[in-house]
Fold each of these.
Amino acid sequence: MGRVIVVGSGIAGLVAALTASASHHVTLVTKSELAESNTRYAQGGIAAATSAADSSASHSLDTVKAGGGLNDSAAVDVLTTEGPELIQSLLDWGVKFDRDTPGTDIEGLARALEAAHSHPRVLHAGGDATGAAIEAALVRVARASQVRIREQLMLTDLIVEGGHVRGIRTLDAHGVHGEITADAVILATGGAGQLFAHTTNPAVATGDGVAAAIRAGVAVSDLEFYQFHPTTLALEGNFLLTEALRGEGALLLNAAGQRFMPAVHPDAELAPRDVVARTIAAEMAKQGGLAVHLDTSPIVHELGGGALGQDRLRLRFPTVAAECLAQGLDLASDLIPVTPAAHYWMGGIDTDLDGRTNLPGLFAVGECARTGVHGANRLASNSLLEGAVFGRRAALAIGSDFGPVRALAPLTADTGNGVPAARVAIQDLMWEHCSLTRTTEGLAEASARLASMSALSPAAALERDDVEVANLLILARATVAAASARTESVGAHYREPSFSHLMR
């Protein structure tokens, strides 16, 4: 049995750790508590073709269409064909998905429709608490398993010797540096929503795994493809308002109380996320920055109308309803102010279909990985499925082949050894110049300003904040460089015409 380190405790990391523990000694490292991850905050659900009326082929077509055609077809096929089997595994691990009929079989599961899906295939649990339900079930299984769990331990860098990963360097909550050695490392460290001033991601989402991989010379790509969720609560914290609300009939209204999506896309409120997000941003600009509103009255009407329909809506979306109430809003009777926010990274560490990177012994799965499955824009509710499918594949591949899979030029950057750059400065800069829309001039300004910033090296840092700033700086530089290099607009990457071109 080999020694395996899994870094990250979302669905990708937990599935990888549980699968690998059948054949290896596994240590799972997470920088916060075990249950804290992006998975925990996922509301809408997990997509898979599990009904007789649906098919993996249809799921694949929807995935490629949403991804702007830049998806890796083999990765998409893996995701959609292996998805139903992983749903069964989640059921076996104790995830209690909502059901239309009593029992334990897949056929009786409730299925919802979300944007850009051609069939209702999105499974949910606890109404709008799917991620929390999955996370809780997997955490219970992990704590009862042979997996060694190390909480409050942050990855700072990879240990590389002789062209092979040999473990990780860490920083604990007391500022003490350490090392853990292993035969293989699986990075499942999630995304980097904290790059931006407005994000649905928790505070831990600072791209630690991708930053460490870049410092180790590991290949990354598609960093310019960052998805912005169209509907987050336009109040402090940017609480996510699940796409399932629009899937069940909620409408978007401008300040004049008028719908604006039908004039932009034939699928209106259910258009791909990048289209809806940019349209909302444009509508907000027209009305002086005021938020647009989500109108749930069509759902209330469909659920029986009046007080009955309102109560049923609150029961269907209890997490969102509770957060709205805490913010002084009633999901069932008020117009809910919404705005886009950074949500999901399609790019990341280059991997093959088994999670292997071009550094032998290093694997990456979930949001930190770039399998190519999402192309330029992720289809709604494919993220949890990706984590489960590729987390398992990586765990099963350990020990079979540690050779490099691609000869890609690594993207490198130097974080320097100066005074830590302010996190808020990076976030504001990225939001201004590298968020929903980008320009040549704005990206050039961002590049220049980022080049002038410096941060402590992770090896010298004694505080977690210092490591996170170093990681955000290296990722911001890399993302701006990738966005500058891709001059065409596709998916979540949208380039506006340059000012110089307009002046000709």
Amino acid sequence: MFSLNDRSALVTGAGRGIGRAIAETLAQAGAKVAVTARTTRELDEVVAGIRKGGGHAVALAADLSQPEVPYQLAKQAAAQLGAIDILVNNAGIGSSSNPKPVIDFDDEFWELSLTLNLTAPYKLSKTVLPAMVERKRGRIINVASINGKIPSLHGAAYTASKHGLLGFTKTLALEVANSGITVNAICPGPVHTLMNDKRLEYDAQRRGTTVAEIEKSLTPIGGRLEPIDIAPLAVYLASDEARTVTGQSWNIDGGVCMAT
């Protein structure tokens, strides 16, 4: 495994699912990790598990939908761990929370989706960047989605926000390319998470079938991915070995997007 010893990481949306798997795997690679989400109980479980394995972790409960919280969170994490070397922008909200066609779409949900999925990563990145630039070292990893490349029926806000996140990734990568900082995106396909469970339930009801039937045909390799399938790429992108990899959007999707 790539070594992340003496590195400090902030992982958002780390209470469960992909964020939790990434936080745990970064810690296993040697990073000190600040985990954040809204639910304190889930964060405490993640921290306890990391510490039990001999790692270093702290929990910072936060609601990233509030305008000033991303700025405050990044500063709190740095105060706890020292300057942040690795930022993983994983927190977000999916279409399953309120799926509707555009003609009926909920304006407040549109705004919330863009706030969590796009604006929060922007604010967090903006806050950790000065210290990264000063030290000529840093890794920013944005967890996007294959829906940053292909559409999702009745998921306009999610799709738009993830397309925006990929554009932000590339632009920021270009701006800091000569500063020892890399910026990349991971684009998961259907992953076995609570958010994706809800999406499958919606699609099953809409199509008059079962979740099991839909799940079987989701990917060419069959079924859904697991959160741990995403984490190793995050460790690589956070490592010194990935110093020349930047501005990329990596699909981990079981073969769904073979041409994007």
